[in-house]
Amino acid sequence: MTVRPPSRLRRLAVLGAVLSAAAATVFAPAASAADTVPGTLSDLRVTADTVSSTVVLRAGDKVLQVDPASVVATIGGKDAKATVAAAASQARSTMLVIDTSGSMGASGMATVRTAVKQFLAVVPKDVKVGMVSFASTSGVDVSPTTDRARISQAVGGLRSQGETALYAAVQQAVAALGTEGERSIVLLSDGGDTVAGLKGGAAGDKAQRQAALNALAKAKVRAEVIAFKSPESNGTTLKQFASVGGGSVANAANSASVGAAFAAAGRVLDSQVVLTLKRPTGVLGDARIVVTGTASGQPFAISTPVDLGDTAPVEVEASVDTRPLVEAGPPPASALTAISPALLYPAIGVVFLGVFAIGVALVNPSFQTKKSARIEAIEGYGFGRAPTAHKQNVNTAAIGQQLVSMGDQIMEGRDSTTKTMALLDRADLPWRAGEWLVLRFLAVVVAIAVGYVALAALPLVGALIGLVLGLVLPPVALKFIAKRRSSKFETVLPDVLMLVATSLASGFSLLQALDAVAKDAPEPAAKEFSRALAESRIGADVSDALDHMAQRMDSPNMRWTTMAIRIQREVGGNLGETLRTTAATLREREMLRRQVKALSAEGRLSAYILIGLPIGIFLYSTVVNYDYVSLLWTTFYGIIMSIGGIISMVIGIFWMRNVVKIEV
């Protein structure tokens, strides 16, 4: 049996359906209006018959595709025939204008590198991308190009320092874009210009700001502005650039929002079409263009004023310097004003110190060398020679001698001089103490200059590192050379003793045997035994001469040999047999030392790997992912971790060194 609903229920159901349909009809337009995609018309160009522009839609987190059949346009209230073409059918270029002033900080630069990487990942391949950076000065780092790797490389080298030359940077970016196709800038800054005000006061700041705004308007360049929040934020100036350039302003308070804003700016370039409108008859002068349509199912409506009488070509200020720093190389350094004050003043100081030292050496008679004084005194006793006034020979050799003499006076009487001279003697370097001091001074000056130039972003840190390296490396190198020569002497000593023993067995005296060693033994033994033989020939005891050689080479084996020779000469015996026994003992000790070295090779290799692996990974990560590694010195916890890691590395190095080091 079928149950029919009562008539009252049927009437209520019909009434509900009617009300639902009416509500849908009433509220559907409101919902549609709320979902309208914002957009602008960029690069408006007027001719006698047409008005062309680029439709730019901003959907935020997605790319929109315009439906050409849905596009309807009016000019001055009259229908205008619209022709839609793909955005890639025209040339497109954009300039990244990056603020690198001191207020951005190291964390701000890390944010920029991450954001630009996101921008390059979404920007269409046909769009040329360039970059302008600005601090106290501004310049075109990379001209518009499709080589994304060059942009990434240039952004990776940015460092924050100095003031904010915002107005000059905008004008340089506009000029670098040229006049062809749809052009835009993506401006990231934390505030207004600080350079123009310093140079020209309030009036100069106003004039430079207006010049930058006029450059955007005349060139018809779209400006997408990202306002990075900081204590120096000045959003009014940035909004003016976006308004004149027909773009938008995105406020970013952290790294994630900056990255999202850059990615959105990249997607805007992929949500474009070229629009050409046929001018309707009877519409002249100022008018309004209205364009409607749908993109990826969403409606858009754009309304913008246009001067139909403005048929002049796009203009770019020719006076703006657009030299590409990366492509064309550095500017010529012939002009003194081209040198940065941060580099000019230290350079002047170094030159002044050098000239002062040379001048003092030339005019002060106390710096005259002893050799010159003796020659001058002897020449005074020559026959027929009248006393002549003192005349200094100003040449390179004389200056060098005087500087060395100064070094000798400084080194004289110091406790470290004796040790330094012993190392120089052991390393077989024919330098005096004064010459060594001059070389160390030059090493410090050169290291400071190299560090200052190499770390231009942090010149004081570079100079400090250069100072440390200049002070540490020369003595370390001297000790290394001396130790290497001493070790080589120890290696050939057993063979030398066998040669002496063989010569003694052949009937030679000890001095004759040493003379044979000086002639036939390998270096450095030949030279050292030759010096010992020379000492004995001028009156020194042969045992004392050999003992001096042992001290000079810091050779414990030679000390034992000298002791054996002394004992034999005092108590008698067969010296040749004694030397053979000593040589055999030294060879056995050397064999044992090499065996221990071979057995501990695995441990030493493990120590080298454990020490070098963290350093190598750090350097590799710095190259491939600088943003990630830079957290170690741009954040508080990163600095704490870095300090702890360095301390742990130092402790580990000393611990592993003691573990694998075995004395024989």
Describe this protein's structure.
The protein has 22 helices and 14 strands. By secondary structure, the chain is α/β, with parallel strands linked by helices. The chain folds into four domains: 90-307, Rossmann fold; 343-373 and 394-407, no CATH class; 413-589, no CATH class; 601-660, no CATH class. The strands form three sheets. The protein has a six-stranded mixed β-sheet with strand order 8-7-6-9-10-11, sandwiched between helices. Strands 1-2-12-5 form a four-stranded antiparallel β-sheet, with no helix packed on it. The longest helix is centred in the last third of the chain and has 47 residues, at 459-505. The protein is elongated, with a radius of gyration of 41 Å. The N and C termini lie far apart (113 Å).
Task: Describe the structure concisely for a colleague.
The protein folds into 4 domains: 90-307, Rossmann fold (3-Layer(aba) Sandwich), CATH 3.40.50; 343-373 and 394-407, no CATH class; 413-589, no CATH class; 601-660, no CATH class.
